[in-house]
Each structure stands twice: as C-alpha cells, then as structure tokens.
Amino acid sequence: MARLDQVITNIVDIFLEYANDEGRKHQLNKDELKKVLQQEIQSPELKEKINADDIEEVMGVLDKNHDGEVNFREFCRCISDLAKCYYQKKTGRGGKKNRGNEPAAED
C-alpha cells in the first residue's frame, strides 16, 4: 500500500476503532478522545500541542458544533493541525506570524 493510502486508512481506522468503543457510534466522547490522544500520539512535540490530561480544554477546541462529542470532521481538523505543527517543527516554516510581512533582503 502506498504511504498516503496507509495514512488515510489509518486515520479512518483509528477513529472508527475508538469511536465505536462506547457512547454514540461514529462519535468520540471525552473518554474515547482521551484514549486516542494517550495511546496513538507518542511524539513529545505533538503531545505538547494537545494535552490528553486536560480533556475539557481539548474538547472545547475540537468540538466545533458543541455537542459534547468529536465527529470525524472535527477529528480530521485535529489531525490536520497536528500535521501542521509537525511541519512547522521540521521546517521552521508555516507559522501565521508575520505572514506576508517578510523583511526585504539586504544587499
């Protein structure tokens, strides 16, 4: 399987595995989300961006429709944000600070 195929199928499979654990099907409740964050994210750089110990705050950030659960779309937003953080860490680029306001190169 190609790498991107594997990434996409892994994201869907992880979501479904945890979302079908308890509570409403195809939704992550607080306990399920906490398990995902604790068990599936091991990189210190990514763990510091979403703190599984402070699940209330995490839910507030991810739960855009305020239904107390995280649906697949909200989960994908989380994964996308983590990927952006990793990209920024790896390249030193991609932050919103000073976007378009780069200082002119000096001669």
UniProtKB/TrEMBL annotation:
It comes from the Eukaryota. Keywords: Calcium, Metal-binding. InterPro entries: EF-hand-dom_pair (IPR011992), EF_Hand_1_Ca_BS (IPR018247), EF_hand_dom (IPR002048), S-100_dom (IPR034325), S100_Ca-bd_sub (IPR013787). The keyword Transferase does not apply. PROSITE patterns: EF_HAND_1 (PS00018), EF_HAND_2 (PS50222). One of its GO terms (cellular component) is perinuclear region of cytoplasm. This is Protein S100-A6-like.
